[in-house]
Amino acid sequence: MEKIKLLDGSIWGKDDLLDKMRDDDFYFNYLSTDRVLSKSSINELVPPNSPKKWYYKMGKKDDSALRAGHLFHLAILEPEKFSQVQFSQYKHRSSKGYKDKQASMTETLYSANEKDFNEKLVGEFTVNKKAMTKLSGATFEEPVIGYIDDIPFRGKIDIVSPDGRLLDLKTCGNLSDFPKNADQYGYDIQCYIYSKLMGVNASSFEFLVISKNTYDIGFFTVDQSFINQGKEKLESAIEIYKSIFLNCSDEEIREKLNEITFQNKLYSRKKFKNV
After folding, report:
1. CA 9, CA 11: separation in Å to the nearest integer?
2. pTM tops 0.70, yes or no
């Protein structure tokens, strides 16, 4: 059996890891950044992002967008997990009743408005024949793990079609903005990592996208320039990871981080008239 050495030095059989990765607790908690990297973790090391921001886990993500995407993802690809999602009778997460209920729970509570909105998204997606054809006969949430530049990476591929194509389900504001979003959120890195770990041509990757503003559905294939861009970003991030974090103590890491400075020359844009 092929072996995988994790960042903490532990050695696993690859098949054993893939089997355990189907469990969310093992996947997200045990396989954290001290044992394996992923697209979501390495994306935050891509320049010009700050390594300090990555190390100290700084910055707040768009919680509402993440929640909407996660809920839609569960409803389409993991209905058994979606059936366990808890919904509140209260429409807004800002209401006292919602906050009191969430405070008494360990799992995530979704508002009535989030439930209604998700039902609209799911309804529009599931009546689209082209979209549903893409899902026909496919396997969902396929775990992958392996080495990229001698570093262990993990991931879960949303959809693997019967002919071996890799598809990823996304939500966005407007479909016309998705190419810009793909660059901003590192979808090019995701495309490269998943295709590399699966050992397939990255051009077989496709994004299935639904607009949260119009409910329109888009299908985005990728070209070689997109793939190369993801590869270059990933290589830059891995270089930073190896130079600062790999096999270093917290003291060594903080010392290296404190050496990072930024310099630039300031100049005035104001034009003065000759006196």
Report:
1. 6
2. yes
Say what angle helices 63-77 and 112-126 make with each other, to 10 degrees.
50
Task: Compute the average pLDDT of residues 72-86.
Answer: 96
Task: Judge whether 86 and 98 are in contact, CB under 8 Å.
Answer: no
Angle at the Cα of 36 (from 42 to 80), degrees rounded to 5? 95
Q: What is the pLDDT of residues 153-174, one digit of tens each?
A: 999 999 999 988 999 999 999 9
Domains of the chain, with CATH numbers?
Answer: 21-60+129-258 (3.90.320), 61-127 (no CATH)
Residue 80's nearest CA partner among 144, 15, 137, 24 is 24
Q: Return contacts of 258-264, CB within 8 angstroms, 24+ apart.
A: 260/50, 260/51, 260/52
Locate all alpha helices (DSSP H) within the chain, ordered by sequence.
14-20, 24-25, 39-42, 51-55, 63-77, 79-82, 96-103, 112-126, 129-135, 178-184, 187-198, 224-244, 250-258
- Round to whole Å and give the CA distance between 33 and 5: 14
Question: Distance between CA atoms of 118 and 122, rounded to whole angstroms?
Answer: 6
Question: Which tokens sit at 228?
Answer: 């190369």
Put residue 41 in one of left, alpha, beta given phi > 0 → left and psi -120 to 50 → alpha. Answer: alpha
* No. of helices (H) and no. of strands (E), the chain: 13, 10
Q: Are strands 11-13 and 3-5 parallel, antiparallel or unpaired?
A: antiparallel
